[in-house]
Amino acid sequence: MSLTTYRRITQISFIVLIFLMPVLDIFRYDTATHELIVLGHVWSLGIDTAMLNDHSVRGSSHIAVRFFLKAVLPWVIVLAVFPLLGFLTGRFFCGWLCPEGTLFELADHLTLKIIGRRSLFVRKPNDPEIRTWNKALAFLIIIVSLVLLPVLGGIALTGYLVAPKTIWGQIISWNFTFGVKAGIIGVATYMMITSVLVRHSLCKYICAAGLMQMLFGWISPVSVRVKMDPDRMDECTNCRGCEKACFMNVLPRMNRRDISCVNCGSCIDACHREMGKGRGLFHYQAGEKKGRPSEDRTPCDINSTVHQCAKRS
């Protein structure tokens, strides 16, 4: 299977996990009972009335330690996940797991199939040439995607604050409380706006998780990156398939760190299709491997082959 196929499996699996976490009480906050539920158990600070009534230094210290261990430290660990991922794997989470990124990729694909370009506003140099759908099929898919997916996302994310069985009970009876209605409509509206108008600009400039991975991946000497084999640059056919496959508008043949690269591997698959299975020029690499002058060569003109540019430089 191609990297893209594996990536679709991980993306769908992660979305399923997001849907199931509140349903299976893996993680959610119940606004009705004001309880945080983790792995089926109520996450308590363990501070009882006796502790609160103990005004001694020892009692106050006990409460402070409990609060740190049960409230502060867990969130520090959670927030540290994205910097750690960025340091080790770059923006791997963005390209292989992020539900929002998956939604934006779907929106790009639908726009390509309908109007022949990824963006609603302007055609970009790396937009691939593909066969568009007929108008009737396109209209049907647009309606289903714009309505069904955001509503399902709204139901799933609202389940992190309201018990999922309560939400589905209200959906079946079509009798909604304000909180459930506001949650579903708010999330659905956000998903519709970002998937139609914003898309990967959010990944590049707004998303906190993405920016943390971007920063730590940039400074890391060991993070995983997609690289072009410097010793085989003269084999490049200048098909530009790697550029057209990249939905983040990265120029893979430049062989430089790019903070927008999400390590999706689309350029790797595109090069394998052009060069033959197992003969592609791109690969994943951990950190920077220097030592040979040829590894610093980069194309000086994206419209020329890599070999031609390297000669001129």
Write up what this structure looks like.
The protein is mainly α and 313 residues long. It folds into two domains: 139 residues, no CATH class; 90 residues, Alpha-Beta Plaits (2-Layer Sandwich), CATH 3.30.70. It is built from 13 helices and five strands. The strands form two sheets. Strands 1-2-3 form a three-stranded antiparallel sheet, with no helix packed on it. A hairpin with a 2-residue loop joins strand 2 and strand 3. The two termini are 38 Å apart.
Estimate the helix proportion, in percent: 55-70%
Largest sheet: 3 strands, antiparallel
Number of domains: 2
Largest beta sheet: strand ordering = 1-2-3
Blueprint (SSEs and pairs):
Elements: H1 3-23, E1 27-30, E2 35-38, E3 41-42, H2 49-53, H3 57-89, H4 92-96, H5 99-115, H6 135-158, H7 164-173, H8 178-198, H9 200-205, H10 208-219, E4 224-228, H11 241-245, H12 266-275, E5 282-286, H13 306-312
Antiparallel strand pairs: 1-2, 2-3, 4-5
Which terms summarize this structure?
mainly alpha; 313 residues; 2 domains; 13 helices; flat
Summarize the structure.
With 313 residues, this protein is mainly α. The chain is 56% helix and 6% strand.
